[in-house]
Amino acid sequence: MTTPSRSLPVHAPMHQFASADRHLLIGGLPLERLAARVGSTPFYAYDRTLLRSRVVELRAALPASIKLHFAMKANPMPALVGFMAGLVDGIDVASAGELKIALDTGANPHEISFAGPGKRDVELRQAVAAGVLINLESFREVAILANISAELALPARVAVRVNPDFELKGSGMKMGGGPKQFGVDAELVPELLSAIGKTCLQFEGFHLFAGSQNLKAESICEAQQKSYELALRLAAYAPSPVRFLNLGGGFGIPYFPGEQRLDLTTIGDNLAQLATRAAVEMPEAELVIELGRYLVGEAGIYVTQVVDRKVSRGQIYLVVDGGLNHHLSASGNFGQVIRKNYPVAIGNRMDCEQKESVSVVGPLCTPLDLLADKMDLSVAQPGDLVVIFQSGAYGASASPQRFLGHPEVIEVLV
Ligand SMILES: *Cc1c(COP(=O)(O)O)cnc(C)c1O
Question: What whole-number percentage of the chain has pLDDT above 70?
Answer without folding.
Answer: 97
